[in-house]
Amino acid sequence: MSEVQKQEDQLAIEIRDLNKWYGEFHVLKNINLQVQKGERIVICGPSGSGKSTMIRCINRLEEHQQGEIIVNGVPLVEDVKKIEAIRKDVGMVFQHFNLFPHLTVLENCVLAPIWVKKVPRKEAEATAMKYLERVKIPEQALKFPGQLSGGQQQRVAIARSLCMNPDVMLFDEPTSALDPEMIKEVLDVMIELAQEGMTMLCVTHEMGFAKTVADRVIFMDAGQIVEENEPETFFNHPEHERTQLFLSQILNH
Amino acid sequence: MKYDSQPTLPAPASTIGAVGWMRKHLFNGPINTIATLVLGYFSIIFLWPVLDWSLLSADWIGTTRNDCTSDGACWVFIGQRLDQFLYGFYPEAETWRLDTAFFILAALIAWLIIPSTPRKGWVATFTLVIFPIIAFILLSGGYFGLETVETHKWGGLSLTLVLAVVGIVAALPFGVLLALGRQSDMPIVRSLSVVYIEIWRGVPLITVLFMASVMLPLFFPEGMTFDKLLRALIGITLFQSAYMAEVVRGGLQAIPKGQYEAADALGLGYWQKMIMIILPQALKLMIPGIVNTFIALFKDTSLVLIIGLFDLLAIMQASANDPNWIGFSTEGYVFVALVFWVFCFGMSRYSMHLEKRLHTGHSNRA
Ligand SMILES: Nc1ncnc2c1ncn2[C@@H]1O[C@H](COP(=O)(O)OP(=O)(O)OP(=O)(O)O)[C@@H](O)[C@H]1O
Ligand SMILES: [Mg+2]
């Protein structure tokens, strides 16, 4: 196996020359990004810079018009089967949890494994309980999402994604809808996940989290990746003026 | 007349609460007092004769028109013809079958309405899938030794209920498909759904019934007969599914986008997403709309009399034309109106109650 080939195999996600427009509005401009298996990446940037749009392109919640996205070696194209295959392997955690309110916590967790992966119910429930224990709320399994606090709901949402046994996890501002006292319990779960070697792409402004777990921090502005570096350099010696400005704004307030 | 002065009489001490209430709501200030007195006067002027005719000087007991001797209403007519009003020309020995079917239906609905009963999902599925088969076998017979009763013998309130219930239940799945079609990404599916919905919503039910009864047979080969009731039911269902589609669409629109995205992100397919995530949530929100559509349809069913089906209204008219009972159509109309009103009022109260409950349920969740 050649050196190049080997490196390709190590890629969880590869984005090449990605461009996306909303009508006239050029929301993503020439995005290039390679994510190694097991890599933890934090994405930050001002509001409206296209962070959500970019990670939502990875599991086709948004469609892109130009460029290539390759997930686990599978190119993302206009083919329902391919898209569903990629979604099986890519978990996503949303800002507003998006749990299914008419189903219990346990049902939320076993639904996709049973119907998408065809796992037998018993096995799916055992897996679900294992992950609910990992996020430290097994005792809530039979409650409905509406009966839980925000932090608990977000941990259920993480468990629900993990139940599909994904290779990559996408997080879109997972803590920004939470009260301050609940942020830590969710971050702790995410840090643990990162330490176990999960490939993660996380949009967040929790700079403490970025410093602890990120292999790379990416700064986006106006639809472009402006700067990417390991956290040490990114926070202490940001190269670009816009990055410096952004960091001074979020760190000083 | 002693009734005139009643509102202004001092109330007995034991009803201080009522006096207080009246002070506050009816007599607070000169304008309100005058308004109360004037309106009270007119309601007594107009209501008194109605009360007198319908209750105080009405005849209740007897078997023929000769038993109606006073100048009030002759409820004897209704009493004598009640069986016909309920069952139409259904053979008398077989009416237990109608009773049984409607009793089961009432029990199932009660089960679904009462909040604390378990296993609502199963009961709802049973009501929508198994019960129609049971009801069909009971009503038309031909199986299990039940005598066949042809549909031209069906009539009265039971026919009204059959038309309304079948109309709603059959329209629901079509309505769901049309509403999903209208939201579809596929342009052809979307346009077809929109065209269908807008065409049916643009024509009155009466023309649909005419077409179903007069034009539909033209499309079938000569000699092939096609049950008249079935034709009416098909017409009503096609018509009603367009309205149902709009109710369903309203329910679907109330589901947050995040629910679709979460289902997508987990890799659920379109139908899995709709059936397990979106529709169960939307259906709950749609119940008040469905009940309102049902009320409208329930009243509209009386239009079938123009194609020669004898629903409650038609059969009452036929009875009132019976030489033995000529001259009592007022009683008949009042009775029919009352029956319709009781059903519709009950349903509309239920739908209001539900809207309130759903409303609080929703804000709890947000
Ligand atoms: N469906 C849409 N149609 C049109 N414009 C959109 C749509 N979704 C997002 N946008 C625009 O695209 C830009 C990028 O949005 P995006 O949500 O990716 O930003 P973001 O970096 O995640 O911001 P935030 O920090 O506020 O979440 C914004 O200017 C937004 O207004
Ligand atoms: Mg965002």
Automatic annotation (TrEMBL), chain A:
Residues 13-247 form the ABC transporter domain. SUPFAM superfamilies: P-loop containing nucleoside triphosphate hydrolases. It is a peripheral membrane protein. It holds the Pfam family ABC_tran. GO terms for cellular component: plasma membrane. SMART domains: AAA (SM00382). It is found in: Cell inner membrane. The keyword Magnesium does not apply. Keywords: Amino-acid transport, ATP-binding, Nucleotide-binding, Transport. GO terms for molecular function: ABC-type amino acid transporter activity; ATP binding; ATP hydrolysis activity. InterPro entries: AAA+_ATPase (IPR003593), ABC_ATPase_HisP-typ (IPR030679), ABC_transporter-like_ATP-bd (IPR003439), ABC_transporter-like_CS (IPR017871), MetN_ABC_transporter-like (IPR050086), P-loop_NTPase (IPR027417). Its main location: membrane. PANTHER family: AMINO ACID IMPORT ATP-BINDING PROTEIN, PHOSPHONATES IMPORT ATP-BINDING PROTEIN PHNC. Belongs to the ABC transporter superfamily. This is Amino acid ABC transporter ATP-binding protein. It comes from Pontibacterium sinense.
